[in-house]
Amino acid sequence: MCLDTGRALFRPPFQWREFIEQAWFIVSVTVVPTMLVAIPFGGVLSLQVGGLIRQLGAQSYTGATAVVAIVREASPLVTSLLVAGAAGSAMCADIGSRKIREEIDAMEVLGINPLQRLVVPRTLACAFVALFLNGLVSVVGLLGGYFFNVVLQDGTPGAYLASFNAIAQLPDLVQAEIKAFVFGITAGLVAAYKGLNAKGGPKGVGDAVNQTVVITFMLLFVENFIISTLYTQFVPAKGM
């Protein structure tokens, strides 16, 4: 199915209306939860890292470590989990409902490719929305980390901001965006596959939704490990 979807991606016409509608739907169900998760996530990282940094006597690097932790690892993971949990489950339920109502079979009888009509725009919508959500999580997480570090741990605002580029570098952000894009593609493909193969009526759709979330989470962590490993191997740390 993944190969067929890849071929359908380059086959005209592209369903722009469906893409825009799905992208807006994903934004509507993920933006607020993403922000609400990013604030405490950045705060917890800042508190934990800040406490460790204070014990080591390197308070001036609190901002740098927060940037690396949030931008490089936390942001794409938070983004992908919310996209998979909220958007992926809804996408699977929608396609699965169409499957048990035999709408997919009717489309094939009419000569309409369901992959090109339904799967491609939804998968691309997941991927592109994940890119923007990743940036949102990074900004909100860093603001939350700044608040917790400066207000609760009596940190120095100037030191927190001045150390941003001490360890972090632009490839960190590029890697995070690549992760978010890959995670979005994965969430869309898994949701579409489970939805298209739903069987057994409404109960089968519910089972497909549950399987979509579990399988997507497992794949995301595996992909995150692979991408992070390749990044550390090919991109040298700053100053080295």
UniProtKB/TrEMBL annotation:
Keyword Phosphoprotein: no
Coiled-coil portions: none
Keyword Membrane annotated: yes
Transmembrane segments: 23-47, 124-148, 178-196, 208-231
Keywords in alphabetical order: Membrane, Transmembrane, Transmembrane helix
Name of one Pfam family that matches: MlaE
Protein name: ABC transporter permease
